[in-house]
């Protein structure tokens, strides 16, 4: 009997939707479509109208967060304290489930990507870190054949950041950068979102793909991410770091991060070749959503 599931990767800017079919024990994605992430009600209408034309057994959701993932909580499947104000406390999973009359599975986009990459791609101990606006660091460990996912709040990681020629030393639990008038964020990942990059360049997010690879902004973003990788290397002895997310579609960042990281570490510990890598799994967010239980 053929398995068919609707897969959604809900990001802060774009949403990927597809229908997953299991063929010879392997998930294949068909009928992919990309939507803009608009207001919650408008976005749900877009998704429901598209998915209604297909037959599937369940809705598999990998979403930006933070999410309520306690199945005993009435808010299970809701987006909680996100910087996207209109999405705060929105029951995205329950809403789609009710309108499409299908059961759902949900987890963070970071966890879903990490699960897919762990099971199907880079199967070493590694840390999967998406470039998103939450303080959401995911550690994946292989304990015999068990996948253990732990959300870490790196509250006391010392970072050095360069902002408009000022050197600012801070702790992550004292983050203080204004992303919007309503929401303040100060962390290395928050400084690297498409929102933060667009604000630095004073351009719309939609114009970021047109920024050339030799623009100085990518050296700055690469420095921030290399510094994050340095701290994670020291704290967790990670064997490999997989960096994903929309910002990392700028492939030049991988070489910048590698160079900056090696300069920062300065042979204090040995860093293997191909240490910071991109995901190996194609459509990793959608595939990860399909793997959720």
UniProtKB/TrEMBL annotation:
InterPro entries: Carb_Metab_Reg_Kinase/Isom, ROK. Keywords: ATP-binding, Carbohydrate metabolism, Kinase, Magnesium, Metal-binding, Nucleotide-binding, Transferase, Zinc. Its cofactor is Mg(2+). It holds the Pfam family ROK. The keyword Magnesium applies. The keyword ATP-binding applies. GO terms for molecular function: ATP binding; kinase activity; metal ion binding. Belongs to the ROK (NagC/XylR) family. This is ROK family protein. The lineage of its organism: Eukaryota, Sar, Alveolata, Ciliophora, Intramacronucleata.
């Amino acid at each position: 009997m053929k398995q068919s599931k609707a897969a959604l990767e809900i990001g802060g800017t774009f949403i990927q939707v597809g229908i997953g079919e299991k063929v010879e024990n392997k998930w294949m994605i068909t009928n992919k479509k990309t939507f803009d992430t608009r207001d919650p009600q408008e976005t749900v209408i877009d998704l429901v109208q598209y998915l209604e034309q297909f037959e599937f057994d369940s809705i598999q959701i990998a979403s930006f967060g933070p999410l309520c993932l306690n199945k005993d909580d009435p808010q299970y499947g809701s987006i909680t304290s996100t910087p996207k104000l209109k999405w705060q406390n929105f029951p995205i999973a329950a809403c789609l489930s009710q309108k499409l009359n299908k059961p759902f599975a949900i987890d963070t986009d970071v966890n879903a990507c990490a699960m897919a990459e762990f099971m199907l791609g880079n199967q070493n101990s590694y840390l999967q870190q998406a470039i998103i606006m939450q303080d959401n660091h995911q550690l994946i460990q292989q304990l015999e054949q068990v996948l253990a996912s732990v959300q870490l709040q790196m509250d006391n990681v010392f970072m050095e950041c360069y902002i408009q020629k000022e050197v600012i030393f801070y702790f992550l639990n004292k983050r203080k950068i204004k992303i919007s008038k309503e929401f303040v964020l100060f962390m290395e990942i928050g400084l690297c979102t498409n929102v933060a990059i667009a604000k630095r360049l004073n351009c719309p997010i939609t114009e970021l793909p047109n920024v050339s690879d030799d623009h100085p902004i990518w050296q700055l973003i690469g420095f921030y991410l290399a510094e994050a990788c340095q701290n994670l290397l020291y704290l967790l002895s990670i064997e490999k770091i997989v960096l994903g997310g929309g910002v990392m579609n700028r492939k030049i960042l991988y070489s910048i991060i590698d160079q900056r990281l090696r300069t920062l570490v300065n042979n204090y510990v040995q860093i293997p070749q191909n240490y910071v890598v991109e995901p190996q799994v194609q459509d990793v967010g959608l595939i990860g959503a399909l793997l959720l239980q």
